[in-house]
Amino acid sequence: MRYLDTPHIPHGWDAGVLYEETTGTLLSGDLFTQIGDGPALTERDIVGPAIATEDLFRFSCLNPGMGPTIRKLATLAPLALMHGPSFAGDGAAALRGLAGDYDRRVRAALTDAAIEAFATAA
Question: In DSSP terms, which residues pair with 2 in a beta bridge?
Fold first, then answer.
């Protein structure tokens, strides 16, 4: 078992994931948090439910390193989810999809902050 430090991804300075080297499985921690009752095993989309959960709780510490860090983890798929069903799909694609959503969120937050700074300076 190998611990991979991922500070503030998705939240908390102490965030990290585990990689089980024998089976090559990434234990993804809070990256794909989902709410509600779901199946025990799924091959369906896990990115959409994770995005919906983030939209609801806004628990992530948005930062520019999110997308690149999550994309690096994509080389370690398959995935085991902490807050969701067991996943039997393309873990690398799911991680890249989640990284893309966090890229979008960071860009939007930076744009909003720049607009606010400009408005208050005027």
Answer: 19
Which amino acid is residue 77, in one-letter code? A
**What is this structure's pTM?**
0.91
Q: What is the 3-state secondary structure (H, E, C) of the chain?
A: CEEEECCCCCCCCCCEEEEECCCCEEECCCCCCCCCCCCCEECCCCHHHHHHHHHHHCCCCCCCCHHHHHHHHHHHCCEECCCCCEECCCHHHHHHHHHHHHHHHHHHHHHHHHHHHHHHHC
Give the domain ranges of the chain.
2-121
**77 vs 53: CA distance, rounded Å:** 22
Q: Cβ atoms within 10 A of the Cβ of 8, count?
A: 16
Handedness of CA 95, 96, 102, 105 (dihedral sign): negative
State the amino acid at position 65 in one-letter form: G
pLDDT at position 47 over 90:
yes
CATH T-level topology, domain 2-121? Metallo-beta-lactamase; Chain A (3.60.15)
